[in-house]
Amino acid sequence: MPHYLGELLLYWCPSCNLPVLGKTCACGLSTKKIEVTPPGDIRPAFPYDINLINSTTEKQFGLKLIPEGHLVVLNKAPYEDRMDEVIFDGAIMGSIRFELEKMDWVFIPRLEGARRLVNGTKCIVIDKGAVNFIMKGASVLAPGVNEANPGIVEEDEVIILTPEHEVIATGRARMSAQRMLTHEKGMAVKTRWHDKPRALEQQQPTEQAKTWDDAVQANIHILRTREEKAHSFIKNVVETQKRPVTVSYSGGKDSLVTLLLVRDTSTEFDILFADTGLEFTETVENVKQTAKELSLPLKIHSSGDSFWQSIDNFGPPTVEARWCCKVCKLGAITQVIEQNYENGCLTFIGQRKYESQIRANSEHIWKNPSVGNQIGATPIQNWTALHVWLYLFWKKAKYNPLYEEGFDRIGCWLCPSASMADFSRLSQIHPELSEKLEKYLKSYASRNGLSDEWVKYGFWRWQALPKSIGMIAQKLGINIVPKNEKKPAQFTLTAGYRPCKAGGITAEGSFGTPLNLSLIEESGFMTLIGETNSIDGVILVSQNENNVHVYASGTVVARGGNEDEARELVQLAQISIRRAVLCTGCGVCVGKCAVRAVSVNGTARISEKCTRCGKCTWSCPVVKFR
């Protein structure tokens, strides 16, 4: 469904044959609005993208869609995987999308694109009596087909022509050409796009090839206005916040533009980079090279191998439970801030509202809920991706080379929010990473009674498949329900709740396995409950009149004044024990502590300064996702 996150800003100058982000081109002429599908986050098509589109249309229709010398923009549209609208010569030519069932790219032509492919294969000529019905949106019935390319098979994208060979519709075949021509009953083509016949619009000749420098000049008045507003915003925020200034640079295009904008307005600031341990090598190199070329201090914290050390505890990350963000990213940025800025910092972040609903609803300035000592601000909240790209082209910035390799977003290479199109491309340019992930996922699938197809089609990316994805799994007969999933260590009540002779109510529970009491005590996590002591293989925790005993055997006994108090204590005890045993040292808890009672040295430690507010507990990935 269309999802509006901001104003749709793509226009086209018919005179210059260039994309423009406003109603007037720099040449002085009015532009034509392009009705793209929301959210309308337009980006340039690089040579790789153009080659992919042309090879796809050539495979399907026998012809290349995009002629040389034309600038092409892409608009990511809502779809179950990845789909981009292809736009040039002032029109949407169609969409290229990655279809999970085929695990391949397919081009879906619109009428303007069909007119450029009409001399190729996959065309159907209909009877004169059916023309008016098809132009109004009716599907093509087999008795109305006069001619059909013999290569057409069921599920092919086809172009529908009048007896005069004029394009009036496009759609997907519901039967083969052979069956269509037998004039049997039934639907031959389910139409998608339809209209009256129209001549092909004149294309620009090759000798007048356009470049992205031309597009920058066509939009220069818009870019300068955006730049001026961003500079004013940055100056005002710096003056009012009175904190050390930093820029969060991820190696992506948005944070690079933000970095350049801050560089032009602030003389002293640091670059922050949270190395999740799951970054592309190209990204890490770009970050370091950018800091070096701009002569700016670079503060890095690497999460190292934290992801692979944690995955057996949490299972593969999913869209619903991206524990990896906390373990590998938020913890890293929290620690780099904690180690370098005693009173926190102001961080400019390349966030834009066109990226997601959450970001669309975000303020321009905010206090990071996950990193307690950081104020975030974005000077490009209202920019589209095309604003960003044109600005980078204008400034001749050295952006991450992965953008020219088929990736429209740069982040962790195994993010569950990535499309299968991205994972397919990953296997081509970084087979070693793809093989590492696939090896683990297949092992996980085998242990849990799932097939290799569960891995192949990317069903691991969700705990509960979206409806459209679930239908594909059902159609292909792929089981998505784990049968033998290895359960985490259980904490069970061994004696329920019973009156205690010493007074109060006692709750007794057990992990069913011995505990490392030294590790638990050294972590200080039991301090969150009360005063802690260790005597003869038992950890004693006192909270007013109540107490908890933790035994090396794995048994935990909590005593409270009533059943609710006992239940709460035993739950807090088992959570604190889990945190101590499973801590990865991600550092998320550090930013939640207002009194600086939490530190990280390999794993987290809580000191006697703890006020027992509990904020670090409920932010911990072990608690949240385990």
TrEMBL record:
InterPro entries (UniProt xref): 4Fe4S_Fe-S-bd, PAPS_reduct_dom, PUA, PUA-like_sf, PUA_sf, Rossmann-like_a/b/a_fold, Sulfate_adenylyltrnsfr_sub2, Uncharacterised_CHP00451
Domain 4Fe-4S ferredoxin-type: 573-603, 607-626
Highest taxon above the source species: Archaea
Gene3D superfamilies in alphabetical order: 3.30.70.20, HUPs, PUA domain
Pfam families found in the cross-reference section: PAPS_reduct, PUA
GO MF annotations in UniProt: catalytic activity; RNA binding
Name of this chain's protein: Phosphoadenosine phosphosulfate reductase
Organism of origin: Candidatus Methanoperedens nitratireducens
